[in-house]
Amino acid sequence: MAGNRRRGRSDAQDADRELLELAKALNLTTIAKELSNLFSLAEREGLSFTAFTLELLRCEYQAREDRRRTRIRKRSGLPEKVEGLNGFDFAARPRLEARVVRELLNCRWAADLGRNVICVGRPGLGKTRILDALAEAACKGGYSVLKCTAAEMLEDLHSSLADGTYKRAFRRYEKPDALYLDEFGYDPFDSEATKHLFRVVCARHRKRSILLAANTGFKQWNRFFPSEAQSVATVDRLIDRATILRFTGKSFRKPKAVHGGESDED
């Protein structure tokens, strides 16, 4: 009897070791790490075979999802710390409904076949802060995000033509679930930049979302394009089914100190 018990314990230990080795070989790193804890849980709560297997797979899946979302956030280009909407002074933006903006944090715009969110208004009104919060929420929801300025994207695409990496560079802006273009409308686009921009917008149209912060209203966009036809074609696709947030009021940005009297230019 004692020999049978020893043999039974030995067989169980061998099975535990083999299970651990198989988990490692299959790259189930979390299961391998948590196996003893999961065994204890199963014994303590009397889990069925199905419940125990489910607990194993849930553990591994959740760990992989956490790692994936960490990678998404790291590659997003977002600042290390995002202020979020807590403390945002919506009273200073009387035409911007807090309810509408907060509803966007659910990220249905990212799931809705490439619905865009466009913030329009002068610099210093909080457009970037709002879009940073939406992009952060998208990362937490498991959506891939890439933030850059419009100028950075266009310069990258232009320079990629010289070294033959255009397709790879273009894919970088086509692939993310949400492409976040900040500082749109500072400088006019030349003919080549317009082609790059239009191509990116077309590739993402009704497929993947664009978050865009523009410093001028749509009616003034023709000033940034070589022709009105190119402006209309780009705007038409950007605003198709988009959520547009208009920012008005005084700038949040204030000087720390002002010295001297006013000049004719102040």
Biggest β-sheet strands, sense, barrel: 5 strands, parallel
Helix content: 40-55%
CA-atom Rg in angstroms: 26 Å
| Helix run count | 10
Number of strands: 5
- Identify low-pLDDT runs: 2-8
Short description:
With 266 residues, this protein is α/β, with parallel strands linked by helices. Helices cover 53% and strands 10% of the residues.
Describe the fold and architecture.
By secondary structure, this protein is an alpha/beta fold. The chain has 2 domains: 2-66, no CATH class; 90-246, 3-Layer(aba) Sandwich (Rossmann fold), CATH 3.40.50. Helix content is 53%, strand content 10%. The chain is built from 10 helices and 5 strands; from the N terminus they run αααααβαβααβαβαβ. It has helices at residues 2-25, 29-45, 49-75, 98-103, 108-111, 127-140, 150-162, 166-174, 191-204, 228-239; strands at 117-120, 145-149, 178-184, 209-214, 243-246. The protein has a 5-stranded parallel sheet with strand order 2-3-4-1-5. β3 (178-184), α9 and β4 (209-214) form a beta-alpha-beta unit. The longest helix is centred in the N-terminal third of the chain and has 27 residues, at 49-75. Mean pLDDT is 86; it is low at 2-8.
